[in-house]
Amino acid sequence: MEDLGLRSYQKEVVERAVKGENVIIWLPTGGGKTRAAVYVAKRHLETNSKAKVVVLVNKVHLVAQHFTKEFDPYLGKQYKLVQVSGDCEEKDFFSDVLGVSDLVICTAQILENALATPDVDRHVELSDITLLIIDECHHTHKEGVYNKIMRRYIGRKLSGERKLPQILGLTASPGGANTLPQAVEHVLEICANLDSAIVSAEVHAPELATKVPRPRTSFDIVERRPEDPFADHLTSMMLQIHECLFTASPSLQLREIGTQEYEADVVLLEESGVKQGKRLLAQCALHLRQYNNALLINDTLRMLDAYKSLGDFYVTKANTAIDQTDRFLIELFRKNQEKLRSLSRDVRYENPKMAQLQTTLLDQFGESRDSRGILFSKTRLSTNCLLDWVSSNPALQNANIKAAILTGAGSGNNCMSQNQQKDTIRNFRNGTLNLLISTSVAEEGLDIPECNLVVRYGLLTNEIAQQQAMGRARANDSVYSVVAQRGSKEVFREFINDNRVKFMAEAIAEIKAMTHMEFRKKITEIQKESMMCLIRAERNRQESKSVNSAAVINILCRNCFTPVATGSDIKLIDNTHYVNVNPNFEIYYKTGGVVHLEKTFVDWEPGCTINCANCNQKWGYEMKYKKVALLANVNIKSFALDTPEGRKTVKQWKKVPFVVEDFNFIEYCDGCPGDSFN
Q1: Which long-range contacts link 577-580 to residues 24+ away (Cβ below 8 Å)?
Q2: Domain end: 332, 348, 364, which one?
Q3: Residue 607: phi, psi to the nearest 5?
Q4: Residue ending a domain, choose from 313, 333, 348
Q5: Closest Cα partner for 634 from 668, 666, 607?
Q6: Confidence of residue 118 (pLDDT cuts 50, 70, 90)
Q7: Looking at the structure, do residues 479 and 599 belong to the same domain, yes or no?
């Protein structure tokens, strides 16, 4: 093991995996889980002449990171290693890549697609793999792609198949629960999903504690601001909308304004309005959600940020009124806009959390200290607001704080490209930057240097996220700070998470104390029950889809209720893109700007955005497929469905109550794109 520089605790946790057992390695962030996995892969390749190792990750950027930083430096000279992700051509020939490689690092969806495809030339079986390494394996639950892969494994195992890959899971926190029995049940479920025992450092735990020290936790608490006229004015505007709502629906009940519970209520109200065809309910709910979001922003960030978020929403609503409801809502904002702008600039009522956040940062970065920190916030919007605040704050600039945002990759607003992520992390590593303002993307996986300070700001998350964020503060005498209002849900959640972590550790100890026979019996019972539930759920799903033919489903714009298509117009491309193939569909939308994506794709390229021609609701974008077919790639969240059972809304295309057929490119080119919409 010395050639990889493993520490004693790493040697301890790989012992059973090296012997061929299915195990989950549980080590904290910074404990070297990936290096341990490299060693297991190395030994597996050395001792199996027909070895095929696949390393699964749950984020695209981790493919290159694991390849470059860990696996290639130690295995690349002796073995053929290949990295595959959604932006490379190899994904379409995964079976060929696997056939000629010793080790493949890929996103989990790539493997799932290869396992699921009926195309013989592209199909892969689990039996083609001898060692399957699953990074951040705590995501192996519910409908996650890791669990889809492992359900295939469990199904084959329970049916008696022997030629299955060895499983190696890696996690910093499998998660816990609010009681010890529940925590035991949860960890056993993760073990069952991965068909693996969980291992951790015991004999060499003191060394682990030395190498990965725990930060000091600091609760930086502030009092509620005594006056908040900006929030009061927003609330008064919301109450005017309430009057309109309650006139139409006297029995309507909504929880406290300015809370997450209120947001949940108005989300359901919008869905109810769409389903009932009551546009007043749906539109009032949409606008109330924006006001409530402004209140939540005001509670965490600056009043200016809250005002801007609301103003940006109404910019998109300008000149789009199609009925009296729209005119009332837009006019309400216009009449109060100047008052809100004035209140948002009154420094007497600014958010005290921001002042405390400044103090927390200055405590670490002041006095010419050579510090490095991460400020975690909830949304991409909040990271941008915080960066603007840091950059324009004289005290923080005098402390030489050099900040940048780090958010997830994507094509939407406030998203970063993968190259931008890499540049930001590189600058953080070399000292050009010393503060990352990040969403949860920095909690796990990314190769980020150890920090002196980690701040959690305006976050309500679980114990897994808490432990991973805390694990970033690994420098000596580091601090994990929670900046929050006294008695707030954020403070309460931190204590809940601490208890869940304690129960998780106790649960793992209890499970490790089980005999081998007792452990296998318990996880086999869980596996059998899970497979039965899966079979029943799939049967119910198929039955619900078979009730209606696609042709009888009318698809309506969710905003204005204009009928624009039928279910039979929708086809599925590459198990990913849901497109409208009816050429008549174009009369119902207008195009906007060209969509720009960082990635390029072999079979398709994006075109212009598409919006409802009647009300300007965003629908998706055009895509050119195989340089021939110009199709509308549509988002189901922008539509409602009229079915024989009534109007419905769904959040995912796979939840629609009809079967979406695969796109037939040859048929399309022959001039038979599908049924016309009447």
Answers
A1: 577/604, 577/623, 577/631, 577/633, 578/633, 578/634, 578/636, 578/653, 578/660, 579/623, 579/625, 579/631, 579/632, 579/633, 579/634, 579/663, 580/631, 580/632, 580/634
A2: 348
A3: -115, -135
A4: 348
A5: 607
A6: confident
A7: no
Residue 345's Cβ-count burial label (10 Å; 0-12, 13-18, 19+) is middle
Buried b (16+ CB within 10 A) or exposed e, 466-503: bbbbbbbbbbeebbbbbbbbeebebeebbebbeebbeb
Entry pTM: 0.90
Question: Which H or E element spans position 484?
Answer: strand 479-485
- Residue 424 and residue 376: Cα distance in Å, rounded? 15
- Taking alpha carbons only, the member of 321, 316, 253, 288 closest to residue 560 is 321
DSSP 604-637: EEEEEEEEETTT--EEEEEEEETTTEEEEEE-GG
CA distance 633 to 662: 14
Stretch 513-533: mean pLDDT: 97
Q: What is the pLDDT of residues 122-171, one digit of tens each?
A: 899 999 999 999 999 999 999 999 999 999 999 999 999 989 999 999 99
Domain carrying residue 28: 2-211
Q: Partners of 198 in the beta sheet?
A: 24
Please state, in angstroms and rounded to a whole number, the distance separating the CA atoms of residues 623 and 463: 41
Rounded to an integer, what distance in angstroms lies between the CA atom of residue 185 and that of residue 188?
Answer: 5
CA 272 to chain centre: 26
Backbone torsions φ then ψ of 55, nearest 5 degrees: -105, 120
How many CA atoms within 13 Å lie on the side-chain side of 375?
Answer: 32
Nearest one of 167, 155, 144 to 16, comparing CA atoms: 167
Encoding tokens for residue 584?
A: 């008549």
Stated length of the chain: 678
Q: What is the predicted pLDDT for the residue at 411?
A: 53
Strands (E), 68-192: 81-84, 103-107, 131-134, 166-171
In the predicted model, is pLDDT for residue 550 greater than 70? yes
3-state secondary structure string across 22-88: CEEEECCCCCCHHHHHHHHHHHHHHHCCCCCEEEEECCCHHHHHHHHHHHHHHHCCCCCEEEECCCC
Type of residue numbered 422: K
**Is residue 395 within a helix (H) or strand (E), and if so which, with residue range?**
helix 394-398
Helix, strand or coil, per DSSP, at residue 455 = strand
pLDDT score, position 545 = 84
109 with 165, same domain: the answer is yes
Do residue 114 and residue 13 come from a single domain? yes
Q: pLDDT tens digit string along 565-584?
A: 999 999 999 888 999 999 99
3-state DSSP assignment of residue 438: strand
Residue written as token pair 């109450």: 239
Same domain membership, residue 175 and residue 53: yes
